[in-house]
Amino acid sequence: MLYRSVDRRHALAAAALGRNPATPGPVADEGELLHAVTGEILDISPHLIIIETPDGRHERLVIAPWATAWRGETVAPADLPRGSQVIVRAVQGGRVAERIWADITRITGVIQNVGKGARDRTMELYCGPHRGRRTVVIPYGASGRLQVRHPKFEPGYLFDAIGVREDGVSHARLPATSQPPYRWTSVPEQPPSYGGAQSRISGTATWSDAFDLDERGAAYPMLESSDSECDEAGVSCARLPYLALGSMLEMRNVCTGRTSIVPIVTCGCLAGRFCDRCLECGTSPRGRIAELSPSSFVELGGDLTTGCFNARVGLG
Amino acid sequence: MTQVSQVWITIAAAQIPVLAVLLALGMAAKIRTVTNNSEPGGMSGLGPAVLVAEKWRAPAMLGCAAGEAFLLGGLMLTGHPFFRWGAVAFFAVSAYVLWELRRRRPDAGCGCFGDVSSIPVGARSLARTVVLTAMAAGTVWVGPAPGWSVLAGISWIEGLAMAGGLLLVAALSPEIEEAAARIRYRVPCEQRRMDPETALNRLRASAAWQAHMRFLASPDPVDSWRELCWRFFAYPGRGPEGNRLEVVFAVHLIGRRPAVRVALVDAEGRPVAVEPVTVGHSRPEPVSARSQPRSGRMLTRARHAARHNSALYGSLASPLESRIEG
């Protein structure tokens, strides 16, 4: 079967079922809209940052007095090096920067092997059929903090950390979650819900660096393998319904009260294998609903260094 | 021997078949769990397998089943004290293992009856093992009669004692509620795996397909995807004026003659209105999930489906809405 562009799917499904197609993007229902501005720092001062966006535009943003920046650790915005890839959370129509993440990366995968070394160690991860393998460095200074939340640095166990990308190499800095105690092939089956169809699905929304910096979208675990060309799809810890690439999720950040319509653009085969909870505001139900692109995550009010927010997608 | 002690021995002897039934059920369920364990790690929440390394879980489960088969055979075919004491030891060790399991893995089920025993070990499971240990201990003082002879010459006292033993064990078995719930439960359609080929075959047997075939430029779909309880098939098509279109069919995944919806969409994604061909010989099938039921059973199913759709898709004004909404 010829595999067509999934962009048309939502419009075609809407036409067949007689509904109005949804427009992706933030829903302006509560508070001021947040904007994610991404690109490379051309120049930065304590009050102004100039960014070259992926499409070649130059964005000049005022740095708010309360703004903070992160590059492996919290730093003053003016200390960020030129040439860094940044994601900026901006307010006031996208003109005022209030949070800047520089060279941030998220390392989510299955441990394949861990190098031996007295100080820094390298770890090879399998990040799913679409993302392949990647090698990350576990710096000696961060290994204690990482191993408190990831006690099993052993092949077959999941790993999820936030780090920085320096000279093309990813360095893990912070654990993004507590490591699941099971191997990645042993995802516990969730008890069935006897109450019938769920009208709301709550869980955790995380982010992933598998997207382009300025891309808006989500990776969703419960896709049919035949529709998504992903043999490892269809595993979920949150009892999610089947959707398709091109479907629209109306994702709500329960912590900030922000809602956004996000298209499903890729398979979240690893997200479905985490049965963790987010503690951003209260304790979320178990399981990851979706992995968002960094821009979508930021526009929903998420903090990239925290790594998750309590999310809800509704079915009615 | 006094009459009272004679009655007690009769009651104790009647528990041999009760123990045998429990051992047989446990053995069969464990073997079934291991043989059906297609998903790696499917036994990750079941004791006592959960207490050992992953590669030893299936052997541990099978070892347990073998022990039960050995005791079952011994209790039913012989009256040798070795098997009676063996049953006491087996259930006493089981009680200890369950206690340990509850302490070390409070989320794991006991696994006593395979994957049906997946709910966490509680006081009832523990009490049941203690009761079984007591029953097994009682059989030690019974004469060397094998279990089958108890069944063969059963008296009314033994029958009552056996029924009482079974009722007591049933009352202490959370698996009964779990099994009943599993029988009642059906995975909601939006979470159920469905074969795309089945949906395609049902589409091709539908009146909507017959009515819109003339618009298709190719009999093979160029794209197919699934959203909740619908599978969509997109075909290249041509309109009445020869303009290029896409014909998209939505097939509901429930039922042998499911609801089928169809739309013709132009290059800009706008629906195009056309007059479909009326097909006289084909049987009409429902065109929406709210078709009229024809019998009482169908009425119940339709009501259930309506409730399900209402919860899943929101307002009844647009039951086919499948966009996930917050």
Fold blueprint:
The complex is a heterodimer of chains A (316) and B (326).
Chain A lengths: L6 H11 L7 E3 L7 E10 L3 E5 L5 E13 L3 E2 L9 E7 L4 E7 L1 E11 L6 E6 L6 E6 L1 H10 L8 E9 L2 E7 L24 E8 L10 E3 L4 H4 L19 E6 L4 E10 L20 E5 L1 H6 L8 E7 L2
Parallel strand pairs in A: 4-7, 10-12, 13-17, 14-16
Antiparallel strand pairs in A: 1-16, 2-3, 2-6, 3-4, 4-5, 6-7, 8-9, 8-11, 9-10, 11-12, 13-18, 14-17, 15-16, 15-18
Chain B lengths: L2 H33 L21 H21 L3 H24 L18 H17 L7 H6 L3 H16 L3 H10 L11 H9 L2 H6 L10 E5 L2 E9 L5 E9 L7 E6 L5 E2 L23 H18 L13
Antiparallel strand pairs in B: 1-2, 2-3, 3-4, 4-5
Helix pairs in contact in B: 1-2, 1-4, 1-6, 2-3, 3-4
Structure notes:
The complex is a heterodimer of chains A (316) and B (326). Chain A has 316 residues and is mostly beta strands. Chain A has 3 domains: 35-102, Nucleic acid-binding proteins (OB fold (Dihydrolipoamide Acetyltransferase, E2P)), CATH 2.40.50.140; 105-175, OB fold (Dihydrolipoamide Acetyltransferase, E2P) (Beta Barrel), CATH 2.40.50.1010; 198-314, Beta Barrel (Barwin-like endoglucanases), CATH 2.40.40.10. Chain A contains 4 helices and 18 strands. Chain A has a 6-stranded mixed barrel. Chain A has a 5-stranded mixed barrel with strand order 2-3-4-7-6. In chain A, strands 8-9-10-12-11 form a 5-stranded mixed beta barrel. The longest helix of chain A has 11 residues, at 7-17. By secondary structure, chain B is of the alpha+beta class. In chain B, β1 and β2 (230-238) form a beta hairpin. Mean pLDDT of chain B is 79; it is low at 280-294 and 313-326. The radius of gyration of chain B is 30 Å and the shape is elongated. Helix content of chain B is 49%, strand content 10%. The longest helix of chain B is centred in the first third of the chain and has 33 residues, at 3-35. Chain B has 2 domains: 3-184, no CATH class; 190-290. Chain B has helices at 3-35, 57-77, 81-104, 123-139, 147-152, 156-171, 175-184, 196-204, 207-212, 296-313, and strands at 223-227, 230-238, 244-252, 260-265, 271-272. A 5-stranded antiparallel beta sheet of chain B has the order 1-2-3-4-5. At the A-B interface, α1, β15 and β18 of A face α7, β1, β2, β3 and β4 of B.
